[in-house]
Amino acid sequence: MEDQTTAYYTKQAEAFVRETQSVDMSVLYERFLPHLPSGAHILDAGCGSGRDTRAFVDSGFMVTAFDASPAIAALAETYSEWPVAVMRFQEIDWCRHFDGIWACASLLHVSGAELPAVVRRLARALKPGGLLYASFKYGEGEQIRNGRHFTDLDETGLADLLRQTPELIEVETWVTGDVRPGRESERWLNTLLQTREAA
Questions:
Q1: 137 phi/psi in degrees, rounded to 5
Q2: Among the four residues 44, 64, 69, 126, which has the most C-beta atoms within 10 Å?
């Protein structure tokens, strides 16, 4: 996460958590969780408020959670009643460790230049055949919005990213509206990517 973005979340931590904790993500869970084995180990990568960590734990999954913002991580740990580490995507160093990785509205804060290397780190952290869910603001290019850095992606941008990350195969990609009240016109690119099975 860019330093400016981390500073934003430090300053706005309580408001951000309050606004996102109660958002109903069940429709997205239904696209992701059925692909995973019972009791799967999920990495909640950039867990934000802890909303999804809590949902996954309550559903019987093993969860490892982290966020780049110490302030957000502390609030997420309190809300989810589950450990939340403070780390950045660029620090991920697991190998064949997770059945699934959930990167909901988090990879979008990684710069375009760093994104392919970060996604390769995520692919390496997955077991063969493991699944990565990621979502981005729908669009193209990089910009600062309200003090945060965003890397937007559309289908063309995702295809370019996948050309640079051959470890992953596209399972499904779809576009949704924002589920937060009053923001339904904002669009999101959602994608499920799978690591190649071991030869």
A1: -60, 135
A2: 44
The dihedral of CA 35, 104, 159, 162: what is its sign?
Answer: negative
CA distances from 141 to 22, 114, 172 (A): 30, 13, 22
pLDDT along the chain (199 residues), means of 10: 71 76 89 96 96 96 96 93 96 97 95 96 97 96 87 96 96 83 73 82
Number of domains in the chain: 1
Reported residue count of the chain is 199
Joined together, the tokens standing for residue 44 give 């909640």
Give residue 38's domain range. 3-195
Long-range contacts of 159-162 (CB under 8 A, 24+ apart): 161/115, 161/116, 161/119, 162/193
Interatomic CA distance for residues 116 and 122, integer angstroms: 10
Q: Give the count of beta carbons closer than 10 Å to the beta carbon of residue 60.
A: 9
155's tokens: 């289908």
